[in-house]
Specification:
4 helices, three-stranded antiparallel β-sheet, alpha+beta, 12 strands, 18% strand, elongated
Length: 317
């Protein structure tokens, strides 16, 4: 008798397994609840029909909807997202003349972009009305593309800080225009302290002009001739853009052999006159306010001097 029961059990398992691995599954089955929806499944567990959407989610046994519904959905005009009861909120924002914000699940006024008479800039809805195509154009507050370098030859534009170009050769960019360097020649007839030199050039009226100033260190280096390391493109790193002693000054700034420059032993351009000595620049050493960068044309060297020292002065415009 026991043997018969075992054989019957084996036969039942074989028949059930065979039916679930073939298309012959019987529709007789049971209901299940999955993700807030009830389905009828056959004996193999396949969904054969959708029964209902559960207002409050599935019961603990996942066999049916939760009943009675003891969860109160929390939506309060939420147009999407979880209702805290296993379902989703679906308030119709269009009934208020609004649209559903998918990020906050709240109704917002529908944003209408405003690009009328605007070719660039913000459209008022988080987008843009367009971008300016020109390399030197920028977008004004009223949404117009304007070339910020019109009439300018060099430097950064006044409104948008756009690079308007640089000057060639020895020309200097002054007020966005390339101007050839005009040197005071001969220089001042006496040496003076740095502040005296600044004031002297600012007040100078010479050769029919009154816009003289003390040259920067890069401008003063442009006069060096015959000493490659300290000429404008030489190894010495001291320039208008590099004024910290430890970062910019090294042995290459020390110049060349004394009194062997191409202009009567002086390392400056032909035609320059004056004392072949130390000359002030307007460039203050960035890491020491009391020191200023100077050029010693007797060696063609670049160095620093304290502001109260007496040095020669050659103004520029």
């Amino acid at each position: 008798m026991k043997l018969i029961r075992v054989l019957f059990a084996v036969l039942f398992v074989f028949v059930t397994f065979s039916s679930c691995n073939n298309t012959g599954c019987k529709d007789e089955g049971w209901s299940v609840c999955r993700e807030g929806t009830t389905y009828w499944v056959d004996q193999c567990g396949n969904e054969v029909g959708r029964l209902a959407d559960c207002e409050c989610g599935c019961n603990d046994e996942l066999s049916d909807c939760k009943r009675p519904c003891d969860c109160i959905p929390s939506c309060n005009k939420k147009c999407c997202g979880d209702n805290d009861c296993g379902g989703t909120c679906s308030f119709d924002c269009s009934s208020l003349g609004m649209v559903c914000n998918e990020e906050t699940c709240r109704c917002n006024q529908e944003c209408v972009s405003n690009c009328e008479n605007r070719e660039c800039g913000d459209d008022g809805c988080g987008g843009v009305c367009g971008t300016c195509a020109g390399m030197t154009e920028y977008c004004t507050e009223n949404g117009r593309c304007v070339d910020d370098c019109i009439g300018l030859q060099c430097g950064l534009s006044p409104n948008a800080g756009i690079d308007c170009g640089s000057c060639d050769g020895s020309d200097t960019c002054i007020a966005w225009q390339c101007r050839g360097q005009i040197w005071q020649n001969p220089p001042a007839d006496h040496s003076m302290s740095w502040q005296e030199a600044v004031d002297y050039c600012d007040d100078l009226y010479w050769n029919g002009q009154n816009d003289w100033r003390l040259p920067t260190i890069s401008e003063l280096r442009s006069l060096i001739d015959g000493c490659g390391a300290t000429e404008p493109d030489g190894e010495c790193h001291v320039t208008d853009n590099c004024l910290v002693f430890a970062d910019c000054h090294d042995i290459s700034c020390g110049g060349c052999s004394a009194d062997e420059g191409p202009s009567s032993g002086c390392y400056w351009k032909a035609g320059m006159s004056g004392q072949c000595s130390w000359y002030w620049s307007s460039s203050v050493r960035e890491d020491l306010e009391l020191a200023v960068w100077v050029v010693y044309f007797y060696l063609g060297s670049v160095n620093v001097a304290m502001k109260d020292r007496k040095c020669e002065v050659r103004c520029i415009r």
